[in-house]
Protein 1
Amino acid sequence: MFELVIFFFFAAVAVIGALTVVLHPNQVVGAISLVLSFFALAVMYVLLGAPFMAALQVIIYAGAIMVLFLFVIMLLNVERDEIVVSRPVQRFLGYTAGSAFGLTVSYYLLKAAVIEAPEGSIFLSDARSVGMRLFEAYIFPFEMVSILLLAAIVGALLLTQRDVRRDATGGGETV
Amino acid sequence: MAFDTTDIVLTVVKIAFVLAITLSITPVMVWVERRGSALIQDRPGPNRVGPFGLLQSLADALKFILKEDVLPAQAHRWLYTLAPVFGLIPAVVTISVVPFARSFVIPEMNVFGRTWFEGGRIFEPIIADVNIGILLIFALASLGVYGMALAGWSSNNKYSLFGGIRASAQMISYELALTLAAIGALMGAGSLRLTEVVYRQTGYFVLFGIDWLRIPAWNIFPMFLGFIVFYVATFAETNRLPFDFAEAEAELVAGYHTEYSSMKFAMFFMAEYMAMGTISALTATLFLGGWDIPWYDEPATFVGFLLSGLAFLIKVSFLLFVFVWVRWTLPRLKYDYLMKIGWKVFLPMAILNILIVAILIAFRWI
């Protein structure tokens, strides 16, 4: 009973937060609503018995990624009248397609999803078991992802360090 | 999870106790800060209200309540009001996973014609002993930055905005060093649970095989590098001098809380000191043995509970005093220098610390 109340409260927070992100004209309010929505999702993970996932959800999405988003929004500081107003046709098509997609997804989820918890399965998602999985069963994709991230970091550095590139080619070249 | 009445009562008592301590950190620390700065600058400091000026904080609080609450005309009304709350909540909640004393057995008692604690009950002096312990602290602490960033943005003031942007950049940068430095201590314990991190530090290190040459098994000794990085990062995370760029009064008036007044300002003030208290408690837990008393075996009784709690309080108070000491001794750094040492010095040092700890564990030296 208690869990049900918590579930419905945070489910409402998550949905309202997500709707605010899409519908509110102010980007900063949108970013904060997304943080709220992520936080409510983390509560869902706790209710499902996966507190480790909940902590990661908050640390990575709410704590790291959204701070960067907010940082960029604040730096750009877009004025309200600079935002391009969409045409009524575009808006109609967008809302129709979006709600059709949402309805279809929820229809098939309700049809196919198993609502009851599987019997007798012990599902562990603490730090130890996740770490073991990552470094034993999924060691190859794990290492591949780190190489991918390294490539991304090097690329980002190359894009920002324009002077270095000019010096390397002997100068005179405009980048 | 099945709770009985005793569990609920004990938890409520623990929450009330910890909340009372956390809330009283701010007035006490304000007094320590004022008298401490006066001591360092060779002047008397506030000494009129109450003995040694101890009631000065009360007078300050009264003043905050009575001041006019100004809402700037161009501010974003909702976010401006919410920002101090965003700052305050993480500072209050994070303390719940820190163990503050040794656990002890409550003996069976017969009070009011009813038997309490049948067969004895172990009292864990921690509000929530969850298996993600420290991750919870990092998760909530990472939300603390929203308070400053939003306050800076919603005030619609260029100084506030600069303060907010600086705060977010600085906290993102130093969060990495802080987390990586803490990993060493967690590797030693093999758990994210802070109670286990403390129990791991209750023994001794016997140096060079000489039996009487014993030092407490505190993490600060094998992980000194990690401790340094962690401790410096805590100054950046709590926006204290020499890293208080979010409010650098010489450049930004008062930074992110320039436009704030009355109780909203007081909430930022409280959040800052509570965050200092939480992070000092975390430093003591991770590196200084938590509630462990060196060269003494705490018994699992009420006396052991009290003594260990006192030891923890002394450690946290010392760390808090160092915050004051450093603030009134060191000048503010340059902003670019802060970023440079954060990424180029402290981050590599934290990674090096992980490597050292891994080697120590591999050879079974700790």
Protein 2
Amino acid sequence: MSAHTHVEGQLPHEPEKATLEGRNKVLGFWLFLGGETVLFGTLFAAYLSLRDQVLEGPTANHLFDLMLVAIATAILLTSSLTSVFAIQAMHQKNVKSLIGWLIVTVVLGASFLGLEIYEFYHYVHEGHGFTTSAFSSSFYTLVGFHGAHVLFGIVWITLLIIQLSRKGLNVVTAPKVYVAGMYWHFIDVVWVFIFTVVYLMGKVV
Amino acid sequence: MAHAHAVKRYSGFMDWLTTVDHKKIGILYLIAGGFFFLVGGLEAILIRIQLWAPQNDFVGADTYNELITMHGTTMIFLAAMPLLFAFMNAVVPLQIGARDVAFPFVNSLGFWTFFFGGLLLNVSWIVGDVPDAGWTAYAPLAGTTYSNDHGMDYYVLGLQIAGIGTLIGGINFLVTIINMRAPGMTFMRMPLFTWTAFITSALILFAFPALTVGLAALMFDRLFSANFFDPTAGGNAVLWEHIFWIFGHPEVYILILPAFGIISEVISTFSRKRLFGYSSMVFATILIGFLGFMVWAHHMFTTGLGPVANALFSIATMLIAVPTGIKIFNWLFTMWGGSIKFTSANLYAVGFVPTFVMGGVTGVMLASAPADFQYHDTYFVVAHFHYVIVGGLVLGIFAGLHYWWPKMFGRVLNETLGKITFWTFFIGFHLTFFIQHFLGLLGMPRRIWQYLDGIGFNEMNMISTVGALLMGVGTILFLMNVVVTMAKPKNAPADPWEDGRTLEWTIPSPPPEYNFAQTPLVRGYDAYWKEKMEGHKGMTPAEPIGPIHMPSPSILPFFMGVGLFVAGFGFMYAPDWGHIGALKTGHFIGIIGLATTLLCMVLRSMIDDHGFHIEEDEILKDLGGKA
């Protein structure tokens, strides 16, 4: 479209917002994250209303190992930082560094997921299965929804890395990277709330 | 930039499966929504036949439960919402002077996920395990203890899949309206239908994720033995009520706001007057949307939330009457002093106003918590919500159908038949539901299969059934009108009502694929009317004629819908279908279905869509042929 042309071979200043398609994508994704906020809000509400219903199963206080969760939290927060570095590299049109930081982000995300799977495995052996109590069902659903989001993000960013290495950085790939970055931050913010509401508050009571 | 890419432009059936054109998707929504409307209507008539005499046994008690559940679910999710999406697709881009929606591919995906979700839900009739826990699916009735066939699985999965379609449709329209308006089309110059579509989309965005979670939790309870809503395992049945209504109440405003928009357009056009109090209309729409999230617990006055909660939700609910009243008076003042033309569309719009007021008044009665203890779960409630949904929304949809039919199909619906349809449907409607207020006040509970002779319910129920049949006749008359009209030549002019005020009437009926040969320059509210009043024949173009970039058609959305449909089946029947190796056959099929959908997403991401260009000579040919 004529309004968005740029000198051939030279990327505009903010390539993610250079085309109408790009701007639509970024705005649409902000709105989508608004919907996701309601989704997680409802999951939190369900968890908060059911978390004391432990029946015969272990309580949150007995179950949670804050050390493990703190390490997972540190890993995920760091991955948010590396995704910022990736977007900065994109704005400097440094494709190599962009891909590098995205790979670091994916690796950190995968490590987080690995720890979470280990954590769930451990809990099941402690007698805290999905069907044990209303507490366990709502716990696995809330934390599991977040984990599934992390998994989706890992697959997504991996696909973007492949695309970037094949197509390079242009006004089509830039919005995709930017939007994936937004998604990754959102996952991180949700985790901050999970860490506080599920794990820290679970230890307090 | 004007170089054509080799893109396949399908024709015939493949064109409809692959289209990303908002006008065609609008027609798809209309056909699918219309089909489900007929299914839901048939269910309604069966319900009324069962109730037309005391202790009737036309259908069994179980079938009756299935009928009321599927009638409510179908009408809300599969008829009303898609019909509104039909108008939003067909009209909103035209009203803001856009060539398409922001995400044409996502638009198509939204339609196909809705369609396959609806199909999944209705396959339950063929299989014989039909949802039967009411459209609200209250726990623990909807749990496996009391609904142990696959009926409620169809409800949970069908609505989940259809809900995805609605959610992405809502996001699409938000972005379209924010980002794609023509030059000069400021927010406060947007036609009121576009405004209501905008607010409705915002409500969809913030209400549907709550339903997603509710349905997912219910699905986990049913398929994977989770304990969200099972009190014996520590679950909480009232939690479902909260989650359902925190979605469910905004949902009724999602439905009614676009109807308000349609009525505003129709009344203004056929009164040949600017809409009275435009800015207060916009303000009232936003306020209704906002308050719509604050009132969900008025569905739960008798649940036992306590007097403080009940009082707060009572007051919040009554507050909604204020912006709604503003709207009613604005419509009346728009008609005041106008030179009113009673076309079929306008008959529906004018009939809407008093009917909706009646539904609103009973709404305020129900909002009073102490009184609600008397009305709760009686036919008074049934009468109330049918007055707002049928008397409000469905009359609005009929008004819109008659008004925009020429724009969508290039043919004006037969006016005589249209007026006969209106009177049949309108009289039938009041006959059916007015009397139900009194049935309710006399104490007839809703959702009952039979009632006893000699308690004064007989005559009123019979009158109600006669009314329902009359509404059925009205619907058939409308279908006849469609058939008669579609057999005529496609010769509607661009502005068939001659009093068109908004941008959709400046372009041919039906519009070319690219809508506007030149993007129009908007110089005020009622953009086209303003030009007419200044003696201009059309809009001032904002750009020279040039090649227009179009998105490519794609079959991927269709297969993404199919994938989810298959996955739904697999997970639902996993307990029944045995094993393949260590994995249950059903889970295997479910994973294949999900993988299909995900694979389509990957393909969409990896393969760039360059689209194609419609060249200048093709546009000039169109202009020469029609202008």
Protein 3
Amino acid sequence: MSCRYFEKMLIDLLYKQEHLGQISLLKLRSIFSHMGQGELEKCLEELVKSGRGWVVRNGHLINKFIVRDIMNDEKRRIENKIKKVEEELNILRQEADTIEEVRQLWIENPLLKGEWSSKVKLFVYAIWSEKLNTILGKVKDREEELKHLRNLIEEINTRIEDSFVE
Amino acid sequence: MDDSAESNSLREEDIVRYLVSVKNEVSNYLEKRLKERAISLEVYERVRLLNEEVAKKLLKDLGKIKPNEVHILEPDRVSVWEFARIVIELIKASSHEREVIDLAHKIRKDYSLARGFPLDWSPENFCYNFLAVFREPAKMGDSEIEVVLRMLEHYTGVAKAVEEKTRTLIKYVEEPDDIVRMAGRTLEIGLGDCDDFTVLIGSIWRALGFLVCIGVGPSHAFPAVILPSLEMVEEPEEEVNQEKTGSSVRFMAIPTIVPADGIKLNLSGKAFSCYDLLNFNSSFRRSLYTFMIQTFGSKKIENLLGIENNEKLEGDKKIKELYNFLRRLQHVSEGYTYYPVPPVSDPMLGQCRHLITLLLEVF
């Protein structure tokens, strides 16, 4: 197998979800065991010297261009998701605020007076509060999701900027 | 007891009128918000549907409306006023519950039996009418004073018995939950936190015809009863000179807010509570006078309240207890906002004295 063909196979392999731009040398040797030790080492040496982004670090063969490519794709995907969750969150907050206003209209209606009205007020308060709590629960979930997604973006940025890529 | 001449019972026509009114109001509000682009069409639709759902639910459950408890929303979304309003509505609704009315009158009857003083029960005609009549200083004969004091002592005793009985019936628990219960529900489960005690004690007092308010702070609430305290008032000098006869003392009824927050003091071998501070002839006050004069050579309460970090405070357990008692009275009057429970109104509440203010005036 030529080193050029070996590189092409490696690139296909490293784009896969389980590798994300890097592979341990141990695993590499096991996958390409048919090549023979000498030929494999020769090809690896050639790749590192090629200037096409290949580096060996901490027992791993890494291609920094593939890592960047994958990370940037992932970043775009997460950024789109963040946008979607932010839109949902905005609508939910709008809904919660509107429900709160509507609840006040129900409770402060001037026809609710006299002793009998207390039960109705409490009943109405309980129903609307239940609705509001459901929405507030969803707001909380979306806020958590957003926090998680923003953390992921930070992690990706760190990985992109990380020394092993540069 | 009504804050209007309307019926106590739930009537279908009232609900229907209310629903029509609220539906129009909400429709107008939602359309306005949509036109202003303050809400999206999606939110408009969702809330409109929810609104219809709530209206249907109210009509469907009409007649069996019996809220047992109310879940308070997350604290940052509920203002102190909103919380107070919920508690006030719970007190109002609970005071019409059968079990609350029965318990209230049982406590009253048991107290009367134990004291051997049967009485036509009518706080509105005695306590609160008395407050209106004796708002200004007036002369009273000795026999009249004796009767009035006996009556006042009886009404105050019943109010106190309500708090004491409730504290024996219900176990106090610090609840991490956000639920405030109707009084009947608290009686059923036998435990509650400060919110539940506020509703329960407040509604029993209200069922008995007492005037009630609530004290609400950031993390605590308690009920308070408004009771008259008969006080001696010095007659203006010129009038004494003009008449030149009889005593120079007149009497005045001062509406006083008595908090039910378990504030007690042991003094001279006796246990006293806030209720015991009412009226000029109170034995608690006499004990206080004696103790203050013996300890400080002065009856001025300011002297005691001003001795913070004093060695005397650290050295004498009794002084420390009295100091803490007065400080707690001061704290419940200044550290909480008081809200009236109808038929008490804001102006009416504004005319009431807190116990510590009363003490500072009379000592």
Protein 4
Amino acid sequence: MRSFVHASVNLRKEPPRDGVLRLAIDGRLDSDGTGQIWRDATSSVAAAKAPSVVLDASGVDYCDGSGIALLAYLRDGQARSGGELTIEGLRPEFQQMLEGWAPGDLARLGGGPRETSSLAAEIGEAAVEVWRDIQALISFVGELTAALGYAALHPRSVRWRDAFRVAEAAGVNALPIVALISFLVGLIMAFQAAIPLRQFGAEIFVANLIALSMLREMGPLMTAIILAGRSGSAFAAELGTMKVREEIDALKTMGLDPVVFLVVPRVTAAVVMTPLLTVFADLLGLMGGSVVMLSLGFPLITFFNQVQYAVTYGSLVGGLLKAFVFGILVAAIGCLRGLQTGSGASAVGESTTRAVVSGIVLITVTDGIFSVVYFYLGV
Amino acid sequence: MAANSQREVIIRVEDFTAAYDGQVVLEHVSFEVYAGEVFAILGGSGCGKSTLLKHMIGLYRPAAGRILIDGDDIAAAGEGRLAILRKFGVMYQSGALFGSMTLRENVSLPLEEFTKLPPEAIRLIALMKLQRVGLSGAADRMPSELSGGMQKRAAIARAMALDPQLLFLDELSAGLDPITSAGLDHLVLNLARSLKITFVVVTHELPSIFAIADRVIMLDKQEKGIIAMGSPQELRDHCGDPRVRQFFAREAPGEI
């Protein structure tokens, strides 16, 4: 039976005499053994600077590709520095393997380090990249608008089964986390606000603060950020994997537009579910605030009346409109990043990250625009 | 067969049964692979070729029976497992090269993880392996930039990184053009003859079987086991089993 036991390898050196360095290797020159003596062997040959090196390989009882690499490397290194290296006693079968690598072959093996680019070139590349991204975004917005318009006119063309599946995954299944986060946000905000307000005896206004901020700002924002993290990323990963596995190409050659077939059901589902989730987020946020109010000694009806007094239907609808827009943005950017996926497993990860980051950036920027618009409209 | 009993056995499959979720795919399969030969596993789609291979390389545990590689049970867990794994290399059906690494990094990975070789040595050895499969010019390319045939060759180079005595190749020439596939056959023969590597190849490409295989076994879906064993020429010319004849004659099933 063949032995796979890694017997150790041994390198013996004699001090150079009359310009001749004598080395001897015995044992197994496999990838383990070669690893043990590589440094030692190469440095002693380089350090000796002897015009002639004699390597006694009669003790080598096994030699594989790594061993041959070492022998060829030593031989070529010695040849480059103008000396010569004689290998003695190498078994014929190993000798034959070594002869497969003529002197100089190793130097011709390709694969230097990749070209490194200068800072200016990198900035230029990044700028072009951003510009391309903007172009892609614009053309995607166009495609998506056209597809959504077509879907609105031809509701039967939408794959409702997919849309319901996505609605369940992105909406129903997100309810627990949306509920938890909004409840805690309401509770924490109320608690933090109660402390300074108490100094002025104005704890009752905690209700106003919670009602206004949850309905107008935190409800839609929290829901949208959770949607970006849960579903925008999922869309990007799913579509990205489809892209990598050429499934997107398969759709195209079947005559099915990937935007109509994949993006429209997802965007539709997200657009319907985000305002619904936001309603729950608003409610749970108010409940969180009411817990603090109760603990401060206010009865529930006081809190209820104060909330009714503080906010109007306008605040609620304004918030829901925001949620509607956030839903479109997050779902669309998730799908776009998925469709833009390159090739390979790492590309899918990259798309997923980009989907979440772009989603959150878009949410924040749009939220800012909404604030300005609502201010001037007096909502 | 008498002459074979003298030869060194590198893989021994003993009364092996494979099952997924209680559904038996293969049962009572026994055979041996001898050191230095090119051994092919044949059969139509769904007959359990890849299942057998995945059990042989230890990805799944046999439902019954044993698979011994160089005398050690591949399914046995514990400290010996890594030593067994280092005895062989595997080329997966679609290459399974790591997409985020260049070819050279792919080949270097096992050398970096399992040996004490210094970086310049690893670089050199990786390039030499790639040169052996005719890819030294593509060492710094990413797998996604390569054609299917090049990816398979690179996958063979990676499987050979630690110079195992045993290589498993899953669907060596599936989906490749005849010229590329003949090139791969040539590569396998060359490696088998010059480095004395044992190959276990899963395939259903007839030209490739005749070009490289010393011995084959043929699996069958209904039988859930081996229906024929021998050299490809023997099976083609002398086997009485209609299913084997059909396979080698490329006949449609209705013609029995």
